[in-house]
Amino acid sequence: MLKEELSTISLETKVTRRWTSQILTNLTFWVLIAIIAGVLLGYYAPATAVKMEVIGKTFIDIIKLFIAPIIFLTIVLGISGMDSLRKVGRIGIKSLLYFEVVSTLSLAIGILMALVLQPGRIDKTQLDLQNASKYTSNAGKSFDWGAFFASNLTLQVLVAAIVIGILLSFSRHRKTVVLRLGQVSKWVFTALKYVMYLAPLGAFGGMAFTVGKFGLHTLVPLAKLMLTMYLTMFLFIVLLLGGILRYYKMSIWKFLKYIREELLLVLGTSSSESALPSIMMKLEKLGCSKSVVGLVVPTGYSFNLDGTSIYLSMAVMFIAQLYDVKLSIFEMLTVIGILMLTSKGAAGVTGSGFIVLASTLAALHRIPVEGLAFLLGVDKFMSEARAITNIIGNGVATIVIAKSEKEFQPVGPSIEIGKTAVAN
Fold this sequence. Notes:
By secondary structure, this protein is an all-alpha fold. The protein has a single domain (about 30-405), classed as Sodium:dicarboxylate symporter (Proton glutamate symport protein, Orthogonal Bundle), CATH 1.10.3860.10. The chain contains 19 helices and no strands. The longest helix is centred in the N-terminal third of the chain and has 33 residues, at about 85-115.
C-alpha cells in the first residue's frame, strides 16, 4: 500500500515538474510576462519606462537585419525551384487580386462600424489637442509613389529577388547556386532562432515605453473609438478571415493559437515587422510552400494591410462625426476609392498612416484636416490592433493562395477543422 502511494506521489511530482518545465521554457509565457511587466513599469514609473524605448528599438533593429536576407533567399529559392515561371506570375496576380478584394472589404467594414457605433459622437473639448502640423502641412499634395518605393526596403528586396529568381531559373549554374543559397538560408534561420530568445526584452521595452510615454489616462476620452476599433478588428478576423479559412476547411482559432508567439510579440513591440521573419518560418512549417510564402508575405506587408485599412476608414468617419460633418453615400464611396489606392502607401514609413489620412481628408474638402490632432495621443495604443490584424491577414492570405495553388502540404501542426494539432 505504501509503495503504491509513493509511486503515485512520484508520478504526480514528475507530471508537475514536466508541466512547470514546459511553461518556464515556453517563449510565449515569457513574452506575456514581459508585456505585463512593461505595462506595470509604464504606469508606476513612467520616467524610467520611457528610457526602455532603446531596448524595444534595438530588438526591432536586430530583427530588421534578418528581413531583407530572409525575403531574398526565400523568394529566389522558391522561384528557381518552381516548375514554371507561369506559375510565379499566376501566384503574383492571384495574390494582388486577393489583397485588393479583402483590403477593400476592410475599408468598407471600418466605415460601416463607424456609422453603426458612432465613435465620434463625443465632446471634443475634453480631448487632448496635439500638434499635427507635420502631417497637415502637406495634406494637399498627392502621394508620392516613387518616394514610397525608395523608402520601402521590403518592396525593393522583393522586386530584386523576383528578377534574380527568374534569371537564375534560366541559368545553367542553377543547381549549384540553389545548393549554396540553401545552405546560407539554413544559417540565417538558425541565427534568427537564437535572436528570437530576446523577444521578451523587445516586448518589455516596447510596451513600457508606450505606456510610460502616452499614459493609460489618455485612453479614457477616446475609449469609445478604441473599443469600436478593437471590436471591428476582432469581428473582421473572426467572421471574414475565419469564414475564408473555413471555406478551406481550416480553423481561425487553431491558426491564432499556432501563431500566438508572433501575436504577443507584435502586441508588445507595436510592430508587425518584428514578427515578419518568424511568421514566414511558421507558415512554411505549417505546410505552405517556400515559393508561396516568399511571394505572398513580403508583398502583403506592403499591399495587404487589413488592420491599417480598417483604421484609416474609421478614422475618417471619426473625425467627420467629431466635427458633425454628414457624409453622403457618394462621399463615403469616394473615401473608400481614395483609400483603396493611398492605403497601400501606409507601410514601411513611420507616420505614413497620418500622411495618407491627411491626403484623404484634403481630397474631400469637407472634413477639417486639423482633426488629426485628436488622434495623435491615442494612436500608439491602436497600432497594436492594426499590426496584429495585418499579420493575421497576411497569414490567412498565404494559406489561401497556397491552398488554391495546391502548394499546401501539411508537415507540422494541423489547423484543419476537426483535426487535432500535431506537436512539433
